[in-house]
Each structure stands twice: as structure tokens, then as C-alpha cells.
Design brief:
single chain; 136 residues; alpha+beta; 5-stranded mixed sheet; 30% helix
């Protein structure tokens, strides 16, 4: 699957967004080393703090399906003209999945006409992850 296909999958996921409060529909698509893709969309809640971001939904779906690592790329789309990046929480969630497989995935931050490709380690330098809790 190409990066363009991954972006199209994220845009498709955004169509399922439940975002009645912000009206900011976000879609995410995660590509794994075996070529499979898992998508997610944001799900808002009247109690704003309980909302779920698209990236977190996709990562949870992947983990629920038994995926532990192998994350090589993620695309994040939204209705903004400029490329959007994952929020801090989502960066941490993606990092957990990536560190389980020892990868540093490309994050495709998608705007209306622009895509900015950034390594997850650049978005979340000196990340806390599974290795941070390992004890000898």
C-alpha cells in the first residue's frame, strides 16, 4: 500500500467520525510491516474529556486484534487546510505500539493539499515507553 492509499484510508475513516461538538472529523490509518492497515476515527462525547482521538481508536483496534508492534506508518487527516499532527496523547499511544516492535514509524500529517512526513521520534523525542519500565 502506498502513502497515497494510506491517506485515502484515513480520509475514508474520517467519514465515520462522531464529532457533533467540534465538527472536526479526523481519520487515522495505521500501516503495519505485513501491509495490513487499521483505521480509526475520532469519537466525541458530551463529557468532552471522554472523547477519543482517531489515532487512539486505530491503535486500540490494532491491539485488540493482537498486534504488538510492526507499525511502520500512520496517516492523520482532518478538515484543516494545514497538515495536522497527532496530539500529545496520541503520540504516546502510537509510540507504545511502535516500541513493542522496535520501529520508528513515518507519520503522514495531512492537510487539504499538503502532506508533511515526520518520524514519530521527532514528534515525541526522548519518549517514555515499554523499555522505560523494564528492570533487570
Amino acid at each position: 500500500m502506498s502513502d497515497d492509499d494510506l491517506i485515502a484510508a484515513a480520509r475514508g475513516a474520517a467519514r465515520h467520525s462522531y464529532s457533533p461538538y467540534s465538527r472536526f472529523a479526523v481519520g487515522a490509518a495505521l500501516r503495519f510491516a505485513d501491509g495490513s492497515v487499521v483505521t480509526g476515527t475520532n469519537i466525541e462525547n458530551a463529557s468532552y474529556g471522554l472523547a477519543l482521538c482517531a489515532e487512539t481508536v486505530a491503535a486500540a483496534k490494532a491491539m485488540d486484534a493482537g498486534r504488538r508492534g510492526g507499525l511502520v506508518a500512520a496517516a492523520v487527516t482532518g478538515p484543516a487546510d494545514v497538515p495536522i499532527t497527532p496530539c500529545g496523547r496520541c503520540r504516546q499511544v502510537l509510540n507504545e505500539l511502535a516500541q513493542l516492535g522496535g520501529t520508528d514509524p513515518d507519520i503522514l500529517c495531512v492537510g487539504a493539499d499538503t502532506v508533511k512526513q515526520i518520524k514519530l521520534s521527532v514528534l515525541l523525542p526522548a519518549a517514555f515507553g515499554p523499555a522505560s519500565l523494564m528492570q533487570d
